[in-house]
Design goal:
The chain is α/β, with parallel strands linked by helices. The protein is built from 13 helices and 9 strands. It has a single domain, classed as TIM Barrel. The radius of gyration is 19 Å and the shape is globular. The protein starts with a helix and ends in an 8-residue tail after the last helix.
Length: about 350
């Protein structure tokens, strides 16, 4: 915890935005049903949290824009209601300023390229709302990019990015938004890296070599992200990190989904040891070094977490586990948050050098 107080601590992905829809829920109060609230952010020494904006597959034109604007509105109201403890951030400098004033920086993320509804104009409007990154796909293929899927393998639809998908990546660079390659297919991953002029980030993906789940990244992929000076933020979901985790009963999983992603019952008798999560960090750190690894929990977006990591207040337990494996404080400091700020700064630098767009698409 002393290290968390000295270092910048950043989590690049939580799904707590979905809980804000419930007007009766107050993030300022401790709530054991979920994974994130203000008291436990303080308990964990967390300085910045990226709130993902997500919606189910769109049914009609305009659904994406309506969902994004409504959820961003919930985030802005949350920050306004807790302005003594939170502040909205969209740049690395904003995060540093928030930390200097003792506030938690809240950042907006768009999880799923389908939410831009095939419109670069809409993407630009999301940036104006404060969005800091775009996850190119979610768990399904979209009109311009292939997904890795989550619960089952997906046959390729495009073989990666379409020409418009390439345009999206280039526009993200121009806007200074991070390109998030979590959830994408391997082909989409490689094409996004080839296209992006800025470092890319995997905001919540773990190591395929430790757990061979389709949502995880291979060693070759992790090395490629590092070669471009990007960061792989390790996901905490038991289903992704633990090869021994059994599949959840569909009825239990549906009750979890119906409850807005809030854990109200025991999902399985199997408990993933915290050491398994530490294994993923250990593997990535040994593979590419502390400059290219970070934290992307997926809190409030997954039904099962490792034992001892039940909420954001337990994050120091991860750091303790890595210290126990021989990592020094100097090695862990960039992993805790500085790496994300570096990528944000790099994206801003690329954007500053990019030509302005004079036409609308």
């Amino acid at each position: 915890m002393a290290l968390h107080q000295k270092a910048v601590v950043i989590d690049t992905h939580c799904d707590t935005t979905q809980r804000l829809v419930d007007a009766a829920w107050d993030i300022g109060l401790r709530d054991d049903a979920g994974h994130v609230d203000l008291p436990r952010l303080r308990d964990g020494g967390v300085d910045a949290m990226f709130f993902a904006v997500y919606a189910p597959p769109l049914e009609k034109p305009g659904d994406g824009a309506r969902a994004v604007r409504a959820q961003v509105g919930h985030i802005l109201r949350m920050v306004a209601q807790h302005s003594a403890d939170m502040t909205l951030a969209r740049t690395a400098a904003d995060v540093r300023d928030a930390r200097a004033t003792g506030k938690v920086a809240i950042l907006i993320a768009i999880e799923g390229g389908y939410l831009i509804e095939d419109s670069l104009d809409l993407l630009r409007s999301y940036r104006e709302l404060g969005a800091t990154y775009l996850t190119l796909t979610h768990s399904f293929h979209i009109s311009w990019a292939d997904s890795a899927g989550v619960h089952e393998d997906l046959p390729p639809r495009h073989g990666g990015l379409t020409d418009f998908g390439v345009d999206v990546v280039r526009e993200l660079n121009r806007l200074g938004m991070m390109v998030d390659i979590s959830h994408v297919s391997d082909d989409t991953f490689w094409q996004a890296l080839e296209t992006s002029a800025a470092p890319v980030i995997a905001t919540h993906s773990s190591c395929r070599a430790v757990a061979p789940h389709r949502r995880n990244l291979s060693d070759e992929m992790i090395k490629a992200v590092a070669a471009q000076d990007g960061v792989v933020q390790i996901n905490f979901a038991a289903a992704f990190i633990d090869p021994d985790a059994p599949p959840l009963d569909p009825e239990v999983l549906q009750r979890w989904l119906d409850g807005g992603g809030v854990v109200r019952e025991r999902m399985t008798d199997h408990v993933t040891p915290l050491s398994v999560l530490v294994d993923h960090f250990d593997h990535a750190l040994k593979l590419v070094g502390p400059r290219h690894v970070g934290i992307g929990t997926d809190f409030d977006g997954v039904p099962m977490l490792p034992g001892g990591m039940e909420h954001c207040g337990k994050l120091p337990s991860l750091t303790a586990g890595l210290l126990d494996r021989g990592y020094s404080e100097d090695e862990l400091t960039p992993m805790l948050g500085d790496n994300v700020l570096r990528v944000m700064d790099a994206c801003a630098k690329v954007a500053a050098a990019a030509p302005a767009v004079h036409r609308r698409a």
